[in-house]
Please model this.
Amino acid sequence: MKLNSKGQVTIPDALRARHGLHQPDEVDVVDDGGALRIVRVGGDKSRGSDSCATCAAAAAPSRPNTCPPTS
Model:
C-alpha cells in the first residue's frame, strides 16, 4: 500500500468486506507502539449497512475509545 499526497491509503475490498466496513463508516488511526491500527469509530456495528438516522446521529457527536487495553 502507498500513501497518496494527502497521507491517505485505500483499505482493500477484501479487508473492508471481512471487517464489515461500508461507506460512510468512520475509522480512526491509532498509534499502538510500533504499529498503526485502524479502528472503527463508535463501536462494532457498521453505520453504512444501516441507514437509521437515529443510530447515525447518536454515534456522530462522540469518538469513544474502541481500542482494547494494551498490556
In short: The longest helix spans residues 53-59. The CA atoms of residues 31 and 45 lie 22 Å apart. The chain has a mean pLDDT of 76.
